[in-house]
Specification:
The protein is built from 6 helices and no strands. By secondary structure, the chain is an all-alpha fold.
């Protein structure tokens, strides 16, 4: 019962956070596909504040999903908790205008912290998908969701990593980043719903 209640909290946080971030990115002033999603959180305007609050909501949702998983799925829970920490750090330390990243742009210390935390958070969540898919302790629906998520997310992750290293800021990076984050958001929403309404027995 406790895990089910925690999972319901994860559903609320992930849904509200995802919707808030999406609105801030799509409706806000930095919606060009050539820009990074994190650019929506730069500055002190209403959209930037909404974006950062949404990211904090997603971070809390990740932490609650980790707590809602059975103890037998501890590798995935640990990865989700690490992803929550990275997500919270990326919202706390905002990048400078344009969110510059090496090797093509000059960066500040805050840019490196923000970018590193964001990349680490995404990596943790993608590997958590795989950990859930491999775990015999997870409910069958959660395992299927993890497998589908990993199959889609890993190629997108590899593509964006190579594009950031060899192409830099571009429409390619912007589109692939949004596609990857969209997959992660869908997986989180589906997984929190599955954990809430079809919990595994320990």
């Amino acid at each position: 019962m406790r895990r089910t209640l925690v999972a319901h909290g994860a559903v609320a946080c992930v849904l509200s956070g995802t919707v808030t971030v999406s609105l801030a990115v799509v409706v806000g002033p930095t919606s060009a596909l050539t820009g990074y999603v994190s650019e929506a959180g730069v500055g002190a305007g209403a959209y930037a504040t909404a974006y950062r609050l949404g990211v904090f909501g997603v971070a809390l949702g990740l932490l609650l999903l980790a707590a809602a998983l059975p103890r037998t799925v501890w590798p995935a829970a640990a990865l989700l908790a690490a992803g929550a920490a990275g997500t919270g750090l990326s919202a706390s330390v905002t990048c400078s205008a344009g969110c510059p990243l090496p090797p093509f742009e000059q960066t500040t210390a805050a840019d490196l912290v923000h970018g590193g935390a964001s990349i680490a958070a995404v990596a943790c969540v993608v590997f958590a998908m795989l950990a859930v898919a491999w775990s015999t302790g997870a409910a069958p629906l959660l395992r299927r969701l993890g497998l589908v998520g990993a199959v889609v997310a890993f190629p997108l992750s590899a593509t964006i990593g190579l594009a950031m290293l060899f192409v830099g800021r571009s429409t390619l990076v912007g589109i692939v980043e949004r596609a990857l984050l969209g997959v992660i958001a869908l997986w989180l929403v589906a997984s929190t719903l599955a954990a809430a309404f079809a919990p595994a027995k320990e």
